[in-house]
TrEMBL record:
Domain Dynamin-type G, first and last residues per copy: 51-312
PROSITE patterns assigned: G_DYNAMIN_2 (PS51718), GED (PS51388)
Residue ranges constituting the GED domain according to the UniProt record: 563-656
Cross-referenced InterPro entries: Dynamin, Dynamin_GTPase, Dynamin_N, Dynamin_stalk, G_DYNAMIN_dom, GED, GED_dom, P-loop_NTPase
Domain of life the protein comes from: Eukaryota
Pfam families for this protein: Dynamin_M, Dynamin_N, GED
Protein name: Dynamin-type G domain-containing protein
């Protein structure tokens, strides 16, 4: 714990005269009180439900260790006491000093406020406990708040928890220990909790279950304070027990003697003061470690420190959570309330989606998707087109060095007939062309499929983005887009299949490149043949083709010239075919994308909408139960956090002073 600022003056026992209202702590409370009030208000608002922990003094102890007695002593009011388990629900005790002589006592639970008085408080608590946890011996985690406003009591808020018991008594559930341990752990785990560990002087501290539990969540003990009760019953060795501190009790020990039986609180305090003053053993315990008044003072100091320490963080997390909830609510799908509103939303969404698509798919403007490379469509499309071209040019079909003249020779031999031999048969050329085109025919089709898959992902993502606030619309526009794109993909595939068929059927080009390339290749014929046939080279380099293995061709001298010619025609023509496949694909692609974005998409979405108009527009106005529940939850959170923010808003300047 941080060091404590100057606290209230300890009320000396000597001053504790017979007067009824001797304050346990002085008016120092006035400073911290607004902060404590704010924390109490936040607790009342149930800010814990938003995951925000409040600074809290949590009272734990084994059964009959004297928890209730300590709280009674602090509050100056009777609590249910007795054998077995009395505290069966978390009891939030809000003690407030107030100057008027008549005390005010009331309970708050289950949204109710029940007034009672000092004499009847214990019964009222028992009744309320029965109402919350049933009148058996079971326990519940629903808290009960007891507010005591009385002259002279400390401004303290503490939570009393069910005492820890190992063995279920008759009528208690078997897992009573686990239930109680669960509740206690939930309260003492948060760093913001101060653990007030009540120990009976009559027992061996290390064997206490409550010590074991608090050490689990507060290993260093920096937020654990021990109150030793029943000092009167076991004074022997008490000094040694509390001086030894082998339990990691960072906040120290306070030894007390509570009221016994029907003693009045005033008498009890006098008794206690006498005991620690006169008892031969107990009087040796340091005065800063004994007595209920000192405990009250110490608790108010600790409370002031922890509140001052926690409130700025609480204010911050309330703000953060409030902003997060508001922005989440704003992001939630909206539900139009009339067909006109739904239609307007629909038109707006289609329009803006269309504009986005135009930008990324056609104009190459990607300001809406700066960091999403997948959505920089014009660049991605040309990349894919380049890759397609590269693959066409580098596939085995396009490698002119492969099996030099083998196919040409075979085809020529097969097209021999009873006719003059020096006419180059056109059919031979076409049959080689057909086989080659067949060899690459999958590639354009694969490319078209890849392109449409990409376009589909882009279009769906844009539509989803623009219609994210309208779930139904999102479904129907996505559906329409998928339909349309699958139709357009089919069209592309049949178009490309036709292109391939056409390439197989006719060899034609008007490009002069064909003739010039062919002549360049043919010019090398004499040299090549001389090298192979006369000089016996088995490998030759042909300009425009590359190095080829040619040893095997010697055996076919009768068709060699025609085969060479055929090969060179095909080599020159194949470049033309590939270029055509790439260029026409590029134009087709561009044409399809424009068509899709500028015409077809809107048409398809509208016709999908019109086909069951009442439906989509109607459904746009319905909200799914899960969305409705989420919205309600967010609205509730926002209300709660907003109120909490207001609570803190009034005291922020004070928080600043205290956390310095
Ligand atoms: P709880 O179960 O922890 O709430 O314990 P209680 O407060 O009900 O106390 C259990 C018993 O111990 C009661 O009979 C109390 O009167 C008694 N007791 C509590 N504190 C003291 C004390 O300081 N001295 C003596 N002699 N008895 C005490
Ligand atoms: Mg009790």
């Amino acid at each position: 714990m941080a060091h404590f600022s100057n606290g209230p003056d300890l009320v000396e026992y000597e001053d504790a005269n017979m007067e009824t209202h001797v304050p346990l702590v002085s008016s120092y409370n006035d400073h911290i009180r607004p902060l404590l009030d704010a924390v109490d208000k936040l607790r009342h608002l149930k800010i814990m439900n938003e995951g925000i922990q409040l600074p809290t003094i949590v009272v734990v102890g084994d059964q009959s260790s004297g928890k209730s007695s300590v709280l009674e002593s602090l509050a100056g009011i009777n609590l249910p006491r007795g054998q077995g388990i009395c505290t069966r629900v978390p009891l939030v005790m809000r003690l407030q000093h107030r100057p008027t002589p008549t005390p005010e006592v009331f309970l708050e639970f289950n949204g109710k406020k029940v007034y009672t008085n000092e004499a009847r408080a214990a019964d009222a608590i028992s009744l309320a406990t029965d109402e919350i946890a049933g009148d058996g011996k079971g326990i519940s985690n629903t808290p009960l708040t007891l507010v005591v406003k009385k002259k002279g009591i400390p401004d303290l808020t503490m939570i009393d928890l069910p005492g820890i018991t190992r063995v279920p008594v008759h009528g208690q559930p078997e897992d009573i220990y686990e239930q109680i341990a669960g509740i206690i752990t939930e309260y003492i785990r948060p760093e913001e909790s101060i653990i007030l560990n009540v120990l009976s002087a009559t027992v061996d501290f290390p064997t206490c279950e409550s010590i074991r539990m608090s050490r689990q969540v507060d290993k260093t003990g920096e937020r654990t304070l021990a109150v030793v009760t029943k000092s009167d019953k076991a004074p022997e060795g008490l000094l040694e027990k509390v001086a030894a501190d082998d339990l990691n009790i960072g906040l120290g020990y306070v030894c007390v003697k509570n009221r016994i039986g029907d003693e009045s609180f005033e008498d009890a305090r006098k008794e206690e003061a006498q005991l620690f003053k006169n008892h031969p053993l107990l009087s040796r315990i340091d005065k800063s470690m004994v007595g209920i008044p000192f405990l009250a003072q110490k608790l108010t100091q600790i409370q002031a420190t922890i509140i001052a320490k926690c409130l700025p963080d609480i204010a911050r997390s309330i703000n953060e959570k409030l902003n997060a909830s508001i922005s989440e609510l704003n992001k939630m799908p909206r539900t139009p309330s009339s067909p006109a509103e739904a239609m307007t939303a629909f038109i707006g969404i289609v329009g803006s989606a269309k504009e986005s698509l135009r930008k990324i798919l056609i104009r190459g403007e990607f300001d809406e998707y700066l960091n999403d490379h997948q959505m920089h469509c014009t660049a991605r499309l040309v990349e894919m087109l380049n890759l397609y071209s590269y693959e066409l040019h580098n596939c085995s079909e396009s490698d002119p060095t492969r099996n030099f003249l083998v196919e040409e020779i075979r085809v020529l031999e097969e097209s021999r007939g009873i006719k003059l031999p020096n006419f180059l048969p056109h059919g031979a050329f076409l049959s080689i062309l057909q086989r080659k085109v067949d060899g690459i025919s999958r590639m354009p089709i694969d490319f078209v499929e890849k392109i449409w898959a990409y376009i589909e992902s882009v279009v769906l993502s844009v539509l989803r983005h623009h219609s994210e606030n309208y779930h139904q619309l999102q479904l129907s526009t996505s559906g329409a887009a998928k339909n349309l794109i699958s139709k357009m993909k089919e069209q592309s595939i049949s178009w490309v299949t036709e292109i391939i068929q056409m390439e197989k059927m006719t060899d034609y080009t008007c490009s002069p490149d064909y003739m010039s390339e062919w002549s360049k290749l043919m010019n090398q014929q004499d040299t090549i043949f001389r090298l192979i046939l006369t000089q016996g080279y088995s490998k030759v380099k042909i300009e425009g083709i590359g190095e080829v293995e040619a040893g095997h061709i010697k055996a076919y001298q009768n068709v060699l010239h025609q085969a060479f010619d055929l090969k060179m025609r095909m080599t020159a023509y194949w470049m033309i075919v590939l270029r055509r496949l790439v260029e026409s694909m590029a134009l087709h692609l561009q044409f399809s994308v424009q068509n899709l974005v500028n015409k077809e998409m809107e048409k398809e979405i509208i016709s999908e909408l019109m086909s069951n108009q009442g439906d989509v527009i109607g459904r746009m106005m319905e909200e799914s139960p899960s969305i409705a529940a989420k919205r309600e939850k967010l609205n509730k959170s926002i209300k709660l956090l907003g109120e909490s923010k207001k609570v803190l808003g009034n005291i922020m300047d004070k928080i600043a002073t205290y956390s310095d």
